[in-house]
């Protein structure tokens, strides 16, 4: 579980890194810049794991490769933005966030399940039968009925 300090730092990184992608380095990304879904920061604030999401599903791996190739330039642009606020500029490690694809896959799997509807006969209480309520089970051998 992340501490408050890690969460605040991750939030700061997410805002400034998004600004770097959109304003400082738009020439690196033809079309839409990558979205940042989540940032996880190590306890010493030295490493930030950045999860990128792409609106176009088929460009994900190419986008990740492009970002990884230019990670030094991205880190320098980020450093210019946050150098007055932090002591250490974290090392950025980029990953592709596939949670949306996974959710779509699970939705498709659950949609394919053939679950029969419940019939009225199945709704009877197993504790009772046609004769009335079931007898209470004996807990002890000397218990009277």
UniProtKB/TrEMBL annotation:
Lineage: Bacteria, Pseudomonadati, Bacteroidota, Cytophagia, Cytophagales
Subcellular location: Cytoplasm
Signal sequence, start to end: none
Family: Belongs to the RbfA family.
Gene3D superfamilies, per database record: 3.30.300.20
Biased composition (Basic and acidic residues): 124-133
GO molecular function, one term: ribosomal small subunit binding
Reported function: One of several proteins that assist in the late maturation steps of the functional core of the 30S ribosomal subunit. Associates with free 30S ribosomal subunits (but not with 30S subunits that are part of 70S ribosomes or polysomes). Required for efficient processing of 16S rRNA. May interact with the 5'-terminal helix region of 16S rRNA.
Subunit text: Monomer. Binds 30S ribosomal subunits, but not 50S ribosomal subunits or 70S ribosomes.
Gene Ontology terms: cellular component: cytosol
Annotated spans, Disordered: 113-145
Family matches, as InterPro entries: KH_dom-like_a/b (IPR015946), RbfA (IPR000238), RbfA_dom_sf (IPR023799)
Keywords: Cytoplasm, Ribosome biogenesis
Claim: Cytoplasm is one of the keywords in the record: yes
Protein name: Ribosome-binding factor A
SUPFAM superfamilies on file: Ribosome-binding factor A, RbfA
Record GO biological process: maturation of SSU-rRNA
Gene, per the UniProt record: rbfA
């Amino acid at each position: 579980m992340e501490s408050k300090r890690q969460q605040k730092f991750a939030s700061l990184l997410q805002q400034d890194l998004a600004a770097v992608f959109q304003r400082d380095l738009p020439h690196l990304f033809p079309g839409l810049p990558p979205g940042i879904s989540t940032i996880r920061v190590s306890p010493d604030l030295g490493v930030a794991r950045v999860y990128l999401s792409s609106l176009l599903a088929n460009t994900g791996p190419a986008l990740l490769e492009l970002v990884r190739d230019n990670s030094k330039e991205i880190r320098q642009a980020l450093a210019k933005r946050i150098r007055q606020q932090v002591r250490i500029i974290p090392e950025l490690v980029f990953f592709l966030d596939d949670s949306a694809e996974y959710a779509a896959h699970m939705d498709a799997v659950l949609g394919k399940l053939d679950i029969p509807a419940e019939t009225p006969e199945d709704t009877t209480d197993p504790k009772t039968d046609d004769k009335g309520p079931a007898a209470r089970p004996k807990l002890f051998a000397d218990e009277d009925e």
